[in-house]
Hints:
alpha/beta; Gyrase A, domain 2; Isoleucyl-tRNA Synthetase, Domain 1; four-stranded antiparallel sheet; 22 helices; 14 strands
Amino acid sequence: MPLQNKLQHAVSAAILNHYQLTLNDFEFQATRQDFEGDITLVVFTLLRHIKGNPVQIGETIGAHLKENNAFIADFNVVKGFLNIVITDTFYNAIFNAILADNNYGISNPNPDEKAVMVEYSSPNTNKPLHLGHIRNNLLGYSVAKIIEASGKKVIKTQIINDRGIHICKSMLAWQKFGNGETPESTGLKGDKLVGNYYVKFDQEYKKQIAQAMANGLSEEEAKKQAPLLIEAQNMLKEWEAGNTEVVSLWKKMNQWVYDGFDISYKTLGVDFDINYYESNTYLLGKDVVAKGLKDGVFYKKEDSSVWIDLTDEGLDEKIVLRADGTAVYMTQDIGTAIQRFKDYDIDSLVYTVGNEQDYHFKVLILILKKLGYDWADRLYHLSYGMVDLPSGKMKSREGTVVDADDLIVEMTQTAKNISEELGKLEGYTDTEKKQLYKTIGLGALKYFILKVDPKKRILFDPAASIDFNGNTGPFIQYTYARIQSILRKATFDYSQSITLDALNSKTKDLIKHLQLFTEIISLAATNHSPALIANYTYDLVKLYNSFYQSVHILSNDNLDEKIVHVQVSHKVAQVIKTAFGLLGIDVPERM
């Protein structure tokens, strides 16, 4: 049992014994370095239940704890703080239990529980993945891994936005200006080739607008009457009508994009269990709206459009069917959510979508509740802030996005430049260096993004992310590699359990932090926050580096102490590897 849980039980028993009160919620914190103790109970928070002097209350509880709990060696009270000293025997026992668990921190899924579905990525098939997609993919994939590690079954999914006017714009531009070029003939990834024609459409469209305005039309009229836009709109109608030629072109160009996405996903290290396609789901929800209209959940306006009134909930009126009977995105999302709960035995669903869609998901969840779906309370919008670069905001149609593939190449090159400058890679083959640069570069990128609370906006600095000091991926990777070097030099058997009469403070600090790992995974899963894992790992590495500087690990003449110090090093490395695995980050054995 973790120390804090054990203490909660003990303090609760003390309060029941002396004050005849049943309390279970206490505030603990690490004891300040200038006082003796391992963990501190904040007595002030008890004063709302127990009347009296906080020092006297602390003395009473402390004396009871020491007398009735073998794992408590001593205590002292400073003002309203009860500092508790834990026995070294207890820390030895905790560490040996951690050491014996080869899968420490990871909980096995309960076969009787339903799965959690996590949606992320959800790209459009008219352009390649960009920096915003990187944050989305890293967040969604990591949250899925963390939820799984907390003991739940997980289904990873994406919905691919493969239809609509924006897709037809790329198709039309390729048809008009492409001269039959393909990914094979150009050497370009398919998503990049198609993305180029999305940009080309915008360029030609703007020329037509400018020409029409020069001929006396207003900007609004020029935009609506531009021949290129009208052709794209007609192409969409032809696609919806099943025109063989248009559908064939759509399938061909989408496949180019899918093949390109697969390469990007593999490079980024993310995957999916199931794909949904908007071309299959865009008609879903219309029957649900019809039933909701009949049941009085929705209402029809004079123009025959269908709406829901959410003003009583502090929102507004929301359209769910246009006057011509066509669906809006909300209609599709209602239908797709219902379909997913039909398709899979899931308990809940996490949407990884940027915070510009916060209002949309509030409305979606509220509508599903009003339609009577009890699982609507278990829909969660993992809302995240945008990623900016010093150069400013990205725009896909203008071709100013930061391409995901290009950024990964840049990160790998930056890792190479910094590593060569520091001279860290002597004795490596060119192949080993190439793989290590990629591991460091991707690790830097992923850690920089995931260490930040999802809701916060990020200003991404590629060079700052590959710093071998500070709260960065490479700093943690380097510590892991350092420990592997120690373990390779440990030629003695360090597998047996050892109980030391006295543990030094640096070793105890590491044991205290290690024993929090399972709880941190649980908290990160509940809060959908990889940042908790990332920053826990950074704190662990800081403690280990302090231990490394202060403690004789391999040069100790006392064999038992040497064994324990190597064991602690081994377990720290194992937790780093597990934690980074939950973030989708690899760790190098040498660095």
